[in-house]
Amino acid sequence: MTTDTPATGRVVLLTASHRVAPGLLSWPAWQTLRTADRVLCADASHPQLPYLREAGVTVEHASPAARELVDACAQGATVVVLTSGEGDRKLTDGLARLAGSGRESMPDLELLPGSYDLPGARLLDLVQIMDRIRRECPWSAGQTHHGLAKYAIEEAYELVEAIEEGDRDELREELGDVLLQVVFHSRIAEEGDPDGEGAFSVDDVAGTIVEKLIHRHPHVFGDESAKTPEEVKAHWLRMKAVEKQRDSVTDGVPLGQPGLALAAKLASRARTAGLAVPLPSGSGVGYELLALAVAAEAAGVDPEAALRAAGRAYRDAIRAAETAGGA
């Protein structure tokens, strides 16, 4: 005599990224939703619900325990649980305990991703968090572009230091700090000037740089060609000159940057433009440093980076002297 083994059914935990527009589910997810015996969701405000209702999928507002979910799959039923973006740890832990007991006839368990994050999706989280901080944090709510300017400079220097030290963990953190400055300033800009004029958002900022990159890379997005880095730079400078309508190659060079960097930048602009400009005559350490910076730029050396490297060596020598003196 044979005994029929009862069908154990199927539990599908359907996840969907909150960073992807609701309703943009994969085809396997839609197939599973439309053929399931029951679809459950504990969150009555889940962003997918309006789109599921529009597609004719009936969703029950329920938060079953693991035992209840197993029982619901009796007789071979398929039950889909629409989880939150972070999943449902309590439910999955409960199912794992039942399966591990060895005393339960468990349904088939399946984790079905309905949508995946695209590259850069976590930037959406950063924008949302910055928006809330701007509204609810007293310090952040009172900040202005001018007040934050010094932090942008500090974070940029810390990023450079992490690069030069070769510290990958520090590099990741400092890149985040620089990114925060961009998002923070963009959030402030949404409010416009004191009169509420000239507002723009982080999307406007991203859109502007996207358009600029496409326009300045005709060898990538257009019909022109560039086989060497020098040809790419020539394209860039030519496009930039057309955009900015500048009268001099020195236009746009910030005079407030560190002196060695300023000298190297001016030398680079003159050299790229094919201008043979003799150095101004003068005496004193300033003119000596100018000559060194120009010579470094011509040799392909960043004088600021070179001086920082020498400065670190000097720092180490000072520490060594302090240690020897205290011995």
From TrEMBL:
- What protein is this chain from? Nucleoside triphosphate pyrophosphohydrolase
Keywords tagged on the record: Hydrolase
Classification lineage: Bacteria, Bacillati, Actinomycetota, Actinomycetes, Kitasatosporales
**Which species does this protein come from?**
Streptomyces jumonjinensis
From its record, what is one biological process in GO terms? dUTP catabolic process
Q: Which residues form the NTP pyrophosphohydrolase MazG-like domain?
A: 143-221
Q: Which Gene3D superfamilies match?
A: MazG-like
EC annotation?
3.6.1.9
**Does this UniProt record's set of keywords contain Hydrolase?**
yes
Keyword Hydrolase attributed: yes
**Per its UniProt entry, what is the enzyme's top EC class, as one word?**
hydrolase
- Tell me the Pfam families matching this sequence: MazG
Q: Name one GO molecular function term.
A: nucleoside triphosphate diphosphatase activity
